[in-house]
Amino acid sequence: MNATPTAIPDVVLLEPKVFGDERGFFLESYSERTFQQLGLPTRFVQDNHSKSIRGVLRGLHYQLGSPQGKLVRALQGEIFDVAVDLRRSSPTFGKWVGEILSDKNRHMLWVPPGFAHGFMVLSDSAEVAYKASEFYAPEHERSIVWNDPAIGIEWPLDRIDPSGPILSGKDAAGLHLNDAEVYD
Predict the structure, then answer these.
(1) Which CATH architecture has domain 43-179?
(2) Which terminal residue of the chain has fewer beta carbons within 10 Å of its beta carbon, N or C?
(3) CA–CA distance from 56 to each of 47, 147, 150, 172 (Å)?
(4) Can you give the pTM of this predicted structure?
(5) Which residues are catalytic?
């Protein structure tokens, strides 16, 4: 597995080795031994799977009290996956990184605890799976609004309907970074 730090070094783009032939392909998406060798966490307690249509934007989500690290990949389709550093003591606080994850490139993104996470679907539909390092805890869940100008995420809006992303009520009501509870 190839691991490449992003512009925020704690967020890592992972490229698994893909073995393919006329029958299809095989890849190892997680190996405790490989993750240990790469210096990445090896403890995951929950697997999540979602399916969404083009233009759906999920996020930017995070949990205080029980912060989750997430290992994210697109099983089907294409997404723009984003991590925002919410660690106030970090030199990259308030900065973001985004990567295209798809069933074609088979890349994964490691989003460590202390970050908000979100993605926007760029294909007709997408199925996204991620491993979480902590259990979902609704009492600790928080949301930053997707278009906070203080963060300035450059979402590829030209790839979706001109009316803008499709949001849940919870995500539309996300807070701006300046008003949100964040990590120390």
Answers:
(1) Sandwich (2.60)
(2) C
(3) 20, 14, 22, 12
(4) 0.96
(5) 61, 130
